[in-house]
Amino acid sequence: MKLKWGMIGGGEGSQIGPAHRLGAGLDGLFDFAAGAMDHRAEAGIDYGRRLGLGDRAYGSWQDMLAGEQARDDRVDLVTVATPNSTHYEITKAFLEAGFHVLCEKPMTMSVEEGEDIVRTAQATGRICAVNYGYTGYSLVRHMRAMVARGDLGAIRLVKAEFAHGHHADAADADNPRVRWRYDPAQAGVSAQFADCGIHAMHMASFVTGQEVTKLSADTVSCLPSRVLEDDAMVNFRMDGGAVGRLWTSSVAIGRQHGLGIQVFGEKGGLRWSQEQPNQLYWMPLGGRLQVIERGEGNLSPEADRTSRVTVGHAEGMPLAFANIYKDLAEAIAAQKEGRAMDAAADLYPRAEDGLRSMAAVEAVAASGQQDGIWLDARPPMFR
Ligand code: NAI
Fold this sequence. Notes:
Radius of gyration: 20 Å
CATH superfamily of the largest domain: Dihydrodipicolinate Reductase, domain 2
Order of helices and strands: EHEHHEHEHEHEHHHEEEEEEEHHHE
Mean pLDDT: 97
CATH topology of the largest domain: Dihydrodipicolinate Reductase, domain 2
Number of strands: 14
Bound molecules: 1,4-dihydronicotinamide adenine dinucleotide
Strand content: 15-25%
Low-confidence stretches: none
CATH class of the largest domain: Alpha Beta
Distance between the termini: 39 Å
Largest sheet: 9 strands, mixed
């Protein structure tokens, strides 16, 4: 089934817009049909027209909402790839108008808004996904499958990192593109954890199949001019008994993207890093260290379904995003056709995951201000 797709934000020169367009377009499952892509109306319309949207290149998301609602061939899925503080309002409006939504992270700025989005998605029966796009990597799906089928036994420890060095230059701290991220008025209660730490924490949940229950955070601003944290070490506990350790930083000079995860169970350990996404390191207890290559034969159905290029060739972030879109196309088509969806595709991150992240963000900020006291990390509606 061919579906229609639209995007809000992701305009010319944006960081994440091109990865969404590549991801949504990869399998021919979505036609890029509509967009309100820039906060400047003229620029958004001009760019949308150059991308082939014609009169469905809108000057604002409100115009797009009205224009698409009035059409019989309205878009099936809307991606919200605008700055963080706008996600809640736009996502809620499109869900209420009956559209499925893929929202960029962080889904909202608060737990309260996050709970409202979850309730809105439930009430409208629309899909609200959140772009924890790195869970689309084939070997991340394989890690999850290995944990789920018991290869590692009970999970004892999970260690997640998202530490880079791109905001380490004190001389650049006042650059407006950097400064807003550490300003509570624009960024909310957390900077680095809300921006990157939530990817790592969500991945810990995705791979282990366990949710975070409580946490203790040590947050610091290594650059004294910053109000919000640029580094955090977070200890957490999970509902299946796993112990979690998470480090996130923006001042780790020499680290590039710096996202990685390790899982240690009673029967073996796994290690994966996003900068070498084609290799998964597996050590069974008492055995030898093995390298599992993405695309090799006889991996899990979840890994086979999401491997996009031949074994040995590099596979990157836009293809991981493409797997989120592939999952969503299957979920939307199944809903339209009134059938059950392919279980191997039922892995896209949900609004519930976006909400859990917001609860973790607020707990990290509060714990960090109180010398690392342990706090409940669950959203009130899931306690
Ligand atoms: P950016 O600043 O590079 O681009 C934002 C785009 O949104 C611009 O084209 C801007 O004109 C447009 N825009 C702003 N307000 C708008 C509005 N009201 N209506 C329509 N368009 C509007 O930002 P970037 O880095 O692309 O980030 C966007 C979002 O994606 C953020 O929420 C960020 O956290 C998230 N992100 C997620 C990543 C992931 O791995 N999942 C990676 C990078 C960013």
